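Feature request, filed as a ticket because there's no other form

It would be nice if the structure record came with a short human-readable summary line next to the tokens. Right now we just get the raw output. Example of a typical job, pasted below so the devs can see what we mean:
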Amino acid sequence: MRLTHGRAAALMVLVTLLWSIAGVVTRHLDAAASFEVTFWRSAFNALGLGIALHWMRGPALWRGLVHSPWSVWVSGLCWSVMFTAFMVALTLTRVANVLVTMALGPLITALFARLFLHHKLAPRTWAAIVVAGAGIGWMFSQGASANEAGALAGIAVAFAVPVAAAINWTVLQHVNHGNDETHDMLPAVLIGAVISSLVTLPLALPFKATPHDVALLGMLGVVQLAIPCLLVVRLSRVLPAPELSLLGLLEVIFGVLWAWWGAGEAPGTTALTGGALVIGALVANELVAMRSPQRASEKQT
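Raw output as currently delivered:
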């Protein structure tokens, strides 16, 4: 099916809706916690991706996996950090804190592109980075003043997600050089899922998950992760990066609402004020970027 811009945008909204269910689902687990939660989700994600990519690529997928270029393996390592840190962070602090921290991804990507790829950043992006950084700093300082060790640890772990995502995107930009004839990067998601599950396996033992927990985490691995990850790679060919980033912010809104409605986890005042700074800065930056005739040359997300 040929994707029009409207269909791609609608599918991106669906992607963010699928991504956003992780927080509320983890709040309904019986016994699984921390690294065991991460292991089961990553394992089912790897299983789902393996089946899907084998159907799409055939046996050539497995023959070429080991000999994939360095960019695929670096991207896979980044995916593994994102998969692992996200779930661990959810077990340490509120869903809102995790999602707001993750929303820094596009701004960190822009900063890395400036530092490592020498892309020019507009003054509005520098301003957005400062404001968003102030928002995260506010959340962290309030957690420290309230002596909420779990909140501080959760925010610190969650911060690894946008950093890994920024490295991932910077590597892709370096390899692609804006050319459509690029390496097949879909196997990187599979590599990330396998690494995440292998690294967390010994930390997850002994297993405490009930069959109910395994069913929920299996659903997350396939529905919340494997399917939307495959979709977003396809959508990136149609939607410009600024628009993808802006639509991706819906995950924060959906995720907070899911946790509030489905688990009774109301976002705290600190998350609301800090989140307003982060989301406001990012929305303003991306809206201006989408209207700017120079957005393509800036290569920002």
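Something like this underneath would help us a lot:
Residues 295-301 have pLDDT under 50 and may be disordered.
Residues 5-298 form one domain.
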